[in-house]
Design goal:
about 70% helix, AhpD-like
């Protein structure tokens, strides 16, 4: 792939603004497992190799199993994910694929019941944030570290 701009160096204030969202999420109530499931699934949908690489490694360090990571893109077809995680993943997909239908009322209500307002708001912020990172990494051809 061709070398493109490095936004961290070219527009450091913009990059730091997005990084501030990461700092907020680090202090949120989201569990490490939930954060990584969101980050990996969004990155799979968007086809962001850099982020898939980074977040699968992070998930493994946090105790996630390889089997669950391998099957994450087919989470509906397995019983490896809890009901709570299934709701989380449904929210993740609907918010990421917002042009298709957005966050449906049924999913929103199930998530609100499962997580409450604050946790659901944090889920939405996490999905939005990794979508921003995916767009930066894909648009700038961010290379995967060796």
């Amino acid at each position: 792939m061709e070398k493109r701009i490095n936004i961290e160096h070219t527009e450091p204030k913009g990059y730091q603004a997005v990084f501030a969202l990461e700092k907020y999420l680090a202090q949120s109530q989201l569990t490490p497992a939930h954060k990584e499931l969101i980050k990996i699934r969004v990155s799979q949908i968007n086809g962001c190799a850099f982020c898939i690489d980074m977040h699968t490694k992070d998930a493994l360090k946090n105790g996630e199993t390889t089997q669950r990571i391998f099957l994450l893109n087919a989470w509906r077809e397995t019983d490896l994910f809890t009901e709570e995680e299934r709701i989380l993943l449904q929210v993740t997909e609907e918010v990421t694929l917002i042009s298709q239908q957005g966050l449906t009322t049924a999913t929103y209500e199930a998530a609100l019941k499962a997580f409450g307002e604050n946790y659901l708001a944090q889920i939405i912020m996490a999905v939005a944030t990794i979508n921003v990172w995916n767009r930066i990494a894909i648009s700038t051809h961010l290379p995967i570290p060796s």
